[in-house]
Amino acid sequence: MAGHSKWANIKRQKARVDAKKGKTFTQLSRAIIVAARNGIADIDGNFQLRTAVEKAKAAGIPNDNIERAIAKGAGTYNDGEANLEEIRYEGYGMGGVAVLIEALTDNRNRTAADIREAFSKNGGNLGETGCVSWMFDHKGVVLLEGEIDEDKLLEISLEADAQSYEMIDEEDYQGAEIFTDVTNLENLNQHLGEYFTVKEAELRWIPNNFVEITDSEQTKYLLRLMDALESLDDVQNVTANFELVEN
Q1: Can you give the residue range of the structural domain that contains 187?
Q2: Closest CA to 196 of 151, 137, 245, 131
Q3: Which residues are 242's β-sheet partners?
Q4: 179 pLDDT band (50/70/90 cuts)?
Q5: In a domain, 29, yes or no
Q6: Could you tell me if 189 and 233 lie in one domain?
Q7: Which residues contact 75 (CB under 8 A, 6 or more apart)?
Q8: Same domain, 98 and 218
Q9: Which domain of life, per UniProt (predicted)?
C-alpha cells in the first residue's frame, strides 16, 4: 500500500528554500464561500466547508470574517460582490513540466491575464483546457502529524478504504499522508482521526508521472513560477509534476 507524493515533498523543499507565505485571507475566505455554496451552510453536515473553516482558523482569520464568508456562500449575505466561479487552468513550465491551477474568481479575464503573465515571465506557457490534466489524478488526502505507528496506520487505512500512504520523516516534520478516492475522504478522515492527529484533509491533484529537474536555472524559474501563481488571490491551489534532483 505504501505510496509516494513527490509533489508534497517538493512543496516542503520549496517552503524551506523560499520561506513560502501562507494563503491569504482572500484565498481562504473564498474557499469557505464556495464550500458553503456547493453544500449546506453547516460545518457539521458539510465536510468541504468544515475543512475550509479549519484552515481559515489556523491562519488566524477572525470568526466574524468566517461567518460572513459562510453567509455569502449560503446567499444570506449580500455586499454587492459578483459571484465566484471555480475555474481550472493548465499550462507548462520550463523543462516541459505540467502545471495545474485551481482558481476562484469573479472576473475570468483578469484571472486568465494574471496567470498568463506569471507563466510568460517565468519561461512557461498557459495552455488549453485538458492539455495537462490527463497527467493528474484527483484524490482525497489526509495529512497526519507526529510519530506514526506504521503497522497501525496500515490497519486503519485498509479498514477505511485508503489507496496508498507515504510516511514523512524529515527534520522539520514527522507524520504521514494517506490517499483515497475523492468520495471517501470524509470517511478516511474520521477513521484516522480516532487514532492519529489529523493536520489537514483536502482534495488534491496528484501527478501520475514526474519530470526530473537537475538544471539549476530551470529549478529557479520553476520555483519562481510556483510562487508567482500561488501569490495570486484568485488562485487556490497549484500542482506541478516536477521532482528536484540534486546533482
Answers
A1: 6-17+135-207
A2: 151
A3: 211
A4: very high
A5: yes
A6: no
A7: 37
A8: yes
A9: Bacteria
Residue 204 pairs in a beta bridge with 139
Contacts of 170 (CB under 8 A, 6+ apart): 12
* Cell triple for 92: 507548462
Q: Are residues 159 and 182 in the same domain?
A: yes
CA 219/CA 39 separation, integer angstroms: 40
Amino acid identity, position 1: M
pTM for the whole structure = 0.77
Torsion angles phi and psi, residue 202, rounded to 5: -155, 165
197 and 140 both lie in a single domain: yes
The predicted-structure confidence for 187-218, as pLDDT tens digits, reads as follows 999 999 999 998 888 888 989 888 888 898 99
Q: Please report the pLDDT score of residue 5 as a whole number.
A: 47
For residue 49, with 0-12 CB atoms within 10 Å meaning exposed, 13-18 middle and 19 or more buried, which class applies?
A: buried
